[in-house]
Write a structure and sequence with these properties.
This protein is an alpha/beta fold. It folds into 2 domains: 138 residues, Cytidine Deaminase, domain 2 (3-Layer(aba) Sandwich); 201 residues, Dihydrofolate Reductase, subunit A, CATH 3.40.430.10. It is built from 10 helices and 16 strands. A 9-stranded mixed sheet has the order 11-10-9-8-12-6-13-16-15. It has a 5-stranded mixed sheet with strand order 2-1-3-4-5, sandwiched between helices. Strands 7-14 form a two-stranded antiparallel ribbon. Strand 4, helix 4 and strand 5 form a beta-alpha-beta unit. The radius of gyration is 23 Å and the shape is elongated. The two termini are 35 Å apart. The structure holds ligand AOF and zinc ion.
Length: 351
């Protein structure tokens, strides 16, 4: 039976993904009503937008009352609280479901197991943690947001085999190949914001936009606490994209630029979350990368590795005298992908 549930959970995850970019800071959720006897799907639904009905409500509405004795599959534990909408667990009980298949527990402190408890107490059979890893991956941003009230932060870097991001003369163009670079564009479009430091802007004058048709460019967060930049750099161009400058001077910013003061990264990220920034991709140089890694503010790394060795130059991270083999940054769930002669290494930071 678990194989069928896994297949249906996979479908739930794809349904849930339709809500990406519209539900935040809520999770992406999909639901399927299934007839075990007939082995067929009766209806599907997903959470379509923030404040809108939950996935279960949508799927149940689409059954037109055919729910008695049926099974419902959801990638997130049905909620038990009154939020913008009433508890889904109550609706499931009232609808006469026999079984509920759940992908993962809702980390929201208002729910956290209470939905499942409610269902079980009503005599409903519950299967938990079906494809849990995939469900957690789908909602990694929501999990970070709800537990820490901070954005999910992914660091992307492109290095040589010896982990350099520039050569001795600070040249960093064309470290990785074209395929890797188009993957970076895709990655950028899947994050709400992109963050870089003044060093990178002075060196490369990047645009930090997404050059894929019909894809929105992310919010630009510019880390310049010591006011080294001026507003002529490409990143400040008024192209309709939100720009947030982290700067401690009292300079007057153009009207398209918001300003935040910097004291430490923990409060910076809390402030960004308060300003509705839920996920950030960091594309920066050694300085900002190192500070963020040292402060353990990074959740995930994507390191593109090229088929070159510089032998000298700047590494993507350099935290002198801080870490050693007994106290180092460790990653889990490591993955690798190949782009011709380049590789992409991906992993999550163990906190
Ligand atoms: C579900 N199914 O489809 C979603 C859930 O403000 P509300 O009422 O929309 O509640 C938001 C919270 O409900 C959210 O933080 C998460 O815990 C849960 N989201 N739960 O059963 C859904 N989107
Ligand atoms: Zn709900």
């Amino acid at each position: 039976m678990n194989k069928i549930y896994e297949k249906l959970m996979r479908k739930c995850i794809s349904l849930a993904k339709h809500g990406k970019g519209k539900v935040e800071p809520n999770p992406c959720v999909g639901a399927i009503v299934y007839d075990e006897k007939k082995e067929e799907i009766i209806s599907t639904g997903y959470h379509k937008g923030f404040g809108k009905p939950h996935a279960e409500v949508e799927a149940i509405k689409n059954t037109k009352g055919n729910t008695k004795g049926k099974t419902i599959i959801v990638n997130l534990e049905p909620c038990s609280h009154f939020g913008k909408t009433p508890p889904c667990a109550d609706l499931i009980i009232k609808s006469g479901f026999k079984k509920v298949i759940v992908g993962m527990i809702d980390p929201n402190p208002l729910v956290q197991g209470k939905g499942i408890k409610k269902l079980k107490e009503a005599g409903i059979e519950v299967a938990e943690n079906i494809l849990e890893k995939d469900c957690r991956e789908l909602n990694k941003v929501f999990i970070k947001n709800i537990l820490y009230k901070k954005p999910y932060v992914m660091l992307k870097t492109a290095t040589t085999l010896d982990s350099k991001i520039t050569d001795e003369n600070q040249n960093s163009k064309w470290i990785t190949n074209e395929l890797s670079r188009s993957c970076v564009q895709k990655l950028r479009s899947s994050y709400q914001a992109i963050m870089t430091g003044s060093g990178t802007i002075i060196k490369d004058n990047p645009q930090m936009n997404v050059r894929i048709k019909n894809k929105k460019s992310p919010v630009r967060i510019i880390f310049d606490p010591h006011n080294k930049l001026n507003f002529n750099y490409n990143v400040f161009k008024n192209d309709g994209v939100r720009i947030i400058l982290v700067n401690n001077s009292n300079i007057k910013t153009p009207e398209n630029v918001e300003k935040i003061e910097f004291s430490n990264f923990d409060s910076l990220f809390r402030e960004l979350y308060k300003r509705n920034i839920f996920s950030i991709m960091v594309e920066a140089g050694t300085g900002l990368n190192s500070m963020l890694l040292k402060e353990r503010e990074i959740d995930e790394i994507n390191q593109f590795i090229s088929n070159k060795i510089f032998g000298s130059g700047k590494p993507f991270v350099d935290i002198q005298n801080k870490f050693n083999i007994d106290y180092c940054i460790e990653l889990k769930d490591m993955k690798i992908e190949q782009f011709e002669d380049n590789f992409l290494i991906n992993g999550k930071i163990i906190k």
